[in-house]
Design brief:
single chain; 68 residues; mainly alpha; 62% helix; 0% strand; transmembrane; transmembrane helix; membrane; mitochondrion; COX7a
């Protein structure tokens, strides 16, 4: 049986595990770029969708863009 080398050294894994367990934040905000992917992008999508819904309601209530 051939013994393969692990993808990462055990010491590096233990070091990363200690780092992430010592941070007292929510799990989805522990990484350095996680605030962008977990907070900023969903807020931008929600904001743009609310804008488009609001514009559609405004256009419908004022009859803008109605085909005759």
């Amino acid at each position: 049986m051939v013994d393969e080398a692990p993808f990462r050294a055990r010491e590096k894994l233990i070091e990363k595990q200690r780092l992430f367990q010592s941070i007292h934040k929510h799990t989805h905000l522990k990484g350095p770029v996680d605030k962008i992917t977990s907070v900023a992008i969903p807020l931008a999508l929600a904001g743009s969708s609310l804008f488009l819904i609001g514009r559609g309601i405004y256009n419908m209530s004022h009859g803008i863009g109605k085909k005759e």
